[in-house]
Structure formats: structure tokens, C-alpha cells
Specification:
257 residues, Rossmann fold, binds adenine
């Protein structure tokens, strides 16, 4: 049976999925991370907290692939909106990912990963389509029952939508109106910004492992970005990640069953 590697960027996202794995989980501690091996929706999964930032996420992705033979890597977490039409409470599924803070000019073009000759790393198209479908189903069918209207309103979550496109990553929490405006201008295709996805996509590219990245929008990456981050994660985003992933695992049929 193939193994699905599930990376989560933040602690609250792991907790619900770990509970759903039941009592038969085996936990391996490697490089100060706990890799939880068990079954989720009938699929063999390895669930791990990637921690924050590109180095942390890349190291975790390598371990999933090398030590646990993950044949697919799926990454969930939060992101700040960059595109005007992306709103708090929306979901973004990556079609491609880029490191917005990578700049080895004049030796290489801005954003280009030296020696790989590319800036954008594609998510697996089949995984992306399935994640988007499951996110839409989650928002339409589960969200109204899981998160009260009062809570949704308190975070300004209103008729959330699913977007597919470019996610940009860098080792910086963007919480400045001028900084997010600069990203919008320099990378007009960017839907949202986070701190890990493009690093995981690069590792998956290098190892030839299909990769899917899904982000819940927690903020507008401006001066209000840090205010409700923890509360949003605990009260909204952790439900999204678990709900969407459970749907995804329920209908995902891997190559090597
Ligand atoms: N993750 C969630 N919000 C973010 C932001 N504003 N910048 C970077 N990563 C994020």
C-alpha cells in the first residue's frame, strides 16, 4: 500500500488528524520531529508538523520521502492573501509555487533556483484538482455545521471560495501593507503568501514525488495580519485542514494501492 505524507505547518492542524488516526498510531522521532504513522480514511499516512519556514519544511519533506517512502506529499497550512479577490476564509490550492525571497542576481535570474534553472515548481495536477474539489465540498457541506455563523462572522468569513493558482513562499511573515503591495506588483499571478510551500514543492520535484499544497487564508498580509492569527488557527483553520484532508483521503486512489 502506498504511503501518503501529510505535512502540516502548524500544531493545531495536526491534533484533529492525529485523533482521527486512532490508537494504533506509531510515532517515530527524527530530527526533533514526530512522524505519526497510521491509517486515515483507509489510507496509510505519515503525519508530521513541518514547523515554520522553508528550511524546516524542506528537511521534513526529505525525511517523509527518504525514511517513510511517501509516494505523495500533501501540505496544509495558512497563508496571507496577496491577490485582491482572495479573502480571509478562502482556500487556495497550488498549481505552482515560487520562492519570492530567492534572489541570486546577478548570477541567476531573480527567483530562479540555482542549478535547477527554474523559478516555479508545479503541484501535481491530479492532486490539485482533487484537493480543490474536496475543498469546495467541505466549504459547501461541512463548514456551516462545523463553525458557527457567529465565529465565521467574527473573523469576517463570508461565502468562502476556493482558488487555484500560484502560491509564493519566503522566510518572512508578511505583515506590512507596502510589502504585500510590492509582492502583488512584482508577482501579479500570486494568490497568497506563506513560508514553506515552494520549498516542499522543490524537494518533491527533485525526488520526483507528486506534491499537493492547500492553504487557508488567515489574513491579508498587511498590518492587521498578526492580530487574530492564533485564534483563527484554533477556531477556523484547524477544522478546514482536517475536514478537507479527510475528504481528500476518502476519495484519493494512489498509483500503488
Ligand atoms: N502565513 C499566514 N499568513 C502569512 C503571512 N501574512 N505571511 C507569511 N506567511 C503567512
Amino acid at each position: 500500500m502506498s504511503t501518503i505524507g501529510i505535512l502540516a505547518a502548524l500544531h493545531d492542524e495536526i491534533a484533529t488528524l492525529l485523533t482521527a488516526m486512532g490508537p494504533d498510531v506509531v510515532t517515530h522521532r527524527i530530527g526533533q520531529r514526530d512522524y505519526h504513522v497510521g491509517m486515515l480514511s483507509g489510507r496509510k499516512c505519515v503525519l508530521v508538523l513541518a514547523r515554520v519556514g522553508k528550511v524546516a519544511a524542506a528537511a521534513t519533506a526529505v525525511t517523509l520521502i527518504r525514511e517513510f517512502k511517501a509516494s505523495v506529499v500533501v501540505f496544509t497550512g495558512l497563508a496571507g492573501a496577496v491577490a485582491d479577490h482572495v479573502r480571509v476564509g478562502d482556500v487556495v490550492v497550488a498549481k505552482s509555487l515560487l520562492q519570492h525571497d530567492l534572489d541570486a542576481r546577478p548570477l541567476f535570474a531573480q527567483y530562479e533556483v540555482p542549478l535547477l534553472g527554474r523559478s516555479y515548481f508545479d503541484a501535481d495536477a491530479r492532486l490539485a484538482a482533487l484537493l480543490a474539489q474536496c475543498a469546495n465540498e467541505y466549504l459547501n457541506e461541512d463548514l456551516p455545521n462545523q463553525i458557527s455563523a457567529v465565529t465565521r462572522n467574527s473573523f469576517g468569513v463570508d461565502k468562502p471560495a476556493v482558488h487555484s493558482g500560484t502560491i509564493i513562499s519566503g522566510d518572512v511573515f508578511v505583515s506590512d501593507t507596502a510589502a504585500v503591495a510590492a509582492l502583488r506588483k512584482d508577482l501579479p499571478d500570486a494568490l497568497c503568501v506563506e513560508m514553506e510551500g515552494a520549498a516542499v514543492a522543490q524537494i518533491c520535484y527533485e525526488y520526483g514525488v507528486p506534491c499537493g499544497v492547500l492553504r487557508t487564508i488567515s489574513d491579508r498580509a498587511d498590518c492587521t495580519a498578526g492580530i487574530d492569527f492564533g485564534a483563527f488557527l484554533a477556531q477556523v483553520a484547524s477544522f478546514y485542514s482536517a475536514g478537507i484532508l479527510r475528504r481528500f483521503l476518502g476519495c484519493y486512489v494512489g498509483e500503488l494501492q
